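Let us practice reading a record.
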Amino acid sequence: MKKSYGLTLAALASVSLLLNACGGNNGGNNASPSASAANSGSSSPAASESAAPSDNGGEKINLSFWTLFDGGDGDNMQALVDEFNKTHPNIQVKNTKLVWGEYYTKLITAVGNGTGPDIGISHTSRLPDLIDQGVATSLDDVAADAGVDWGTFNQNLLNATVVDGEHYAVPIDTHPFIMYYNKKLLKDAGLLGDDGKPVLEQSADGFVKFLDTLKSKLPAKITPFALSNTNDDPYRLWWALYSQLGGNDVVADDLKTAAVDADKGAKAADYIQKLFTNGYIKKNDPDFYKNFQSGTAAIMMTGVWATGTWESTKGLEFGAMPIPKIFDKEATWGDSHTIILPTTKDNDPAKRKAALIFANWVADNGQIWAKAGHIPSKPSVLEKPEFKALPYRSDYVSVADTVKFSKPSTKVWQIRDNSSFKFLNEVWANKMTPAEAMAKMQEETQKILNE
């Protein structure tokens, strides 16, 4: 992958467009305001020590850390930083919280000016662009000295951060697309088992039968399946089903060629289109989150960041689970928060080692970070009593193994917004056939890759 250390106005403009496209209450970037209220002020479970040495020959090292988290995520990350500083007196991390919508632009600009932080945050999906811009650096020069054992991470999450055979980030979570269900409504429809889980056959026909039963047995005011009618979440469902069918990434391995699998893409889109046209999903739903939160939707699908919101909703009896295996294999959409080491003026080895000690420690203490709903990146965390004490999370942690990440293309967000969203939205509105949409996606994706 090209590593360009000069920043252009065109590159910054591109990042700005990506940021604008990623906002919203269901973007998967932060806990919702409701979740923030639930998490604020809560005490952190006991943190565990990383296996890496916490001292640096007695010399104190100060590290600057830029984050994009607010609300509950912001509180939990600050709790991690505070605990690390308390237990590592020779390494002190200062957490600077930037506004989410400005974060990536400010990070790229600051690194280009030589005034960037020692530690930063990147979504896995944005990592290729940060590498290409010369912002994110390879970690392999100091990982061993910092005590980082790459074998301790979930390999699906880790592999998504490896580019050209080099590790560029320490994943601290995944926040995938899952299914939530209203226990009371499912019980009323005779679809809740004695174990508190849905009675649902894991197949294409089984899921439709499940929705049909909800539609026929519940009052007309109840939405069987709450889902947005445009953009993020129906796209995430399409990506999940496309991946369940074994569809290729929409970009080929050479990162230059569009590779939409038209047949599988159309089959996934046709299945979802029929969920809309057959009335299982409410048309023109002004706020599908509120629909589920108010108890007027039986199921909904979105990212795990909604868990904290539902937990803080009085009277909502809900459950969480992986999305159903509708087609050939289990798969879903997801992204990850990762910790990166940006390029600095001197790339001081001592600071880089200390920064990786911190990053590895954060991953080791994912039970704190999991409060907002995220799945920790290290399987060992899932066995901690503090994590097991958190409700719902253990019901969907297996999804970390089935998240299908995009290829490491710098154009992934442009393709999503200007090709996938654009044409799939026409399918959901019944204005374009799935086959036509796939042909348009292939054509537009190639245009974007040629730019």
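A brief commentary: The radius of gyration is 22 Å.
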